[in-house]
């Protein structure tokens, strides 16, 4: 008969529990809620997203139940959720090409609180295959600003073969049409915006809760959070799928 302690090992004075071949660090009971709170507040994640950030590294009994308790008492989430409006719909199906940097989804997030730099929006670029996100604060949704951000994107990653945007958005202007034509980029329009853009807006409002006019300072952190968060549709984080290695965060062992 297998002893209940056989799954536990000690390495470097730390206790680990072996589950399905993975050695998970056993978190002392008096530290569990603090660790859960820290993982949640890194991006004010949902219950499942918070669990995904912990479950592969730490062993905490009844983890989901404890996460639910933590989030139900999160004042920032309670206040931010009350302010969220109608949720954006899902994208209509478009034939998917399983290549990184082949297709981008683009959208504007905002308007947000005006800043002392006059930023009011975030220009969002999402790689269709890897779900990797690039975020650029902008002062408007003008074609000129959008094109300048795509040029900045091109300087590092070159052009995608196609760009997908919402119908009736700024991306359907003559300026964008001419730009896409000159760069040999196919432009497709869909009826709704990006679901992840709505998620980004929720996170940025929570990160900048102390002074909403300073939200632009948190855009790099928001981009890091989105790209290091596990995505069920790809069974990895966007960073891992695009770069090939796991993003190292300050909480990693």
UniProtKB/TrEMBL annotation:
GO MF assignments: nucleic acid binding; RNA-directed DNA polymerase activity
Ranges in a coiled coil: none
Enzyme's top EC category: transferase
Domain of life: Eukaryota
Ranges where the Integrase catalytic domain occurs: 96-198
One GO process term, biological-process aspect: DNA integration
Pfam families, A to Z: Integrase_H2C2 (PF17921)
Assigned EC number: 2.7.7.49
Protein name, entry field: RNA-directed DNA polymerase
